[in-house]
Amino acid sequence: MWRCFMEQLFRIPKLYTSILLESLHYAKVEKGWTYPNHRHFIFEFIYCASGSMEQWVNGQPFVLKEGDSLIVKSGLYHHTAPLSEDTEFFVFHFDVDMKEVQTIFQIAANPLIPSQERTQSDQAGIFSVSSWVKGFIEEFGETLIKHEDSLIKEVEERLASSVILLRMQMRILDFIGLLADYFIKDTKLLEHNKMNASQINLAHEVAYQLELHSGERLQINELAKHVGVNRSYLSSCFKQVYGIAPREYFTKIKARTAKLLLQNTDLTIEEISTKLDFSSSAHFSKFFLNTVGLSPLKYRNASK
User: Fold this and answer.
1) Which is the most buried residue in 48, 120, 186, 291, by most CB within 10 A?
2) Does 1 fall in a domain?
3) What is the pTM of this model?
4) Residue 11 lies in a domain
5) Alpha-carbon dihedral of residues 97, 257, 58, 128, nearest 10 degrees?
6) Spatial separation of the C-alpha atoms in residues 148 and 145, rounded to whole Å
């Protein structure tokens, strides 16, 4: 009997990565425009296309000239100072499931990418942030404008538009990878950070446990006992890596899960509140309103 052998060149049993994109927009604003102090538990990318803008992040000023870009880390308060001239900028807020990638952005020593900086891409050689933004707007700008138009009713047109939006998400995910690659290679990420590998691994394990038990009530003491450290050390390591406390991270997960359930299922508000282990639908509705800014019902209707 002949025996045949198979030689595997490579094998990845499972790979899953999702990306959350919020408030993606390109804006033209007049001299004197400003934006108030606020924070959010996802990252923000800001690119100055023309003019200049002064961003204050956690009490530190960053002046963006034409071609400069900035990553605002998760959980940090930030605002835009009154503009000294007419300005155009491109912004999107993002989060990715890969905890290691979140860490890269969170512990980067200098979140500012000057216009002359370039990041390496194995596939594309030298990569320019400015060229990427211009190319992105040229390719997807018209689609994004149409996406805002609620008059698009033809099924065929909606389906075609959804494919373009999928390609857009893939393009941004690739861009986020290039930005992460820049911070790894060009800022000697770990050399500038005081945390060691075991502390970073601890934070990643805690984040994993929070994701795993997102449908339960959070007990930090039990979580600390599970990973074998005291509560204060756990919270300190976690905040250094993710920029927010474990409880705030858990809140972010619950809000994200609730959004997905409201968008993609027919579960009632009561059923969702039970699934996420809230004591009542009223408690869940109050949580969602405080976290997202809309009631669950209004969010569901707006997502349709």
Assistant:
1) 48
2) no
3) 0.68
4) no
5) 40
6) 5
- Domain boundary pick from 151, 186, 221: 186
Q: What's the CATH number where 253 sits? A: 1.10.10.60
Tokens found for residue 141: 């700008």
For residue 230, being part of any structural domain is answered with yes
Are 58 and 147 in a shared domain? yes
Which residue segment(s) compose the domain that 176 sits in? 19-186
Mean pLDDT by 10 residues, the chain (304 residues): 67 72 92 90 94 90 95 89 95 89 85 72 62 92 68 62 86 94 70 69 85 81 91 90 85 86 90 91 92 88 74
| Cα-to-chain-centroid distance, residue 158 | 26
Distance CA 96, CA 74 (A): 12
Instruction: State the total domains in the chain.
Output: 2
106 contacts 99 by C-beta, under 8 angstroms: no
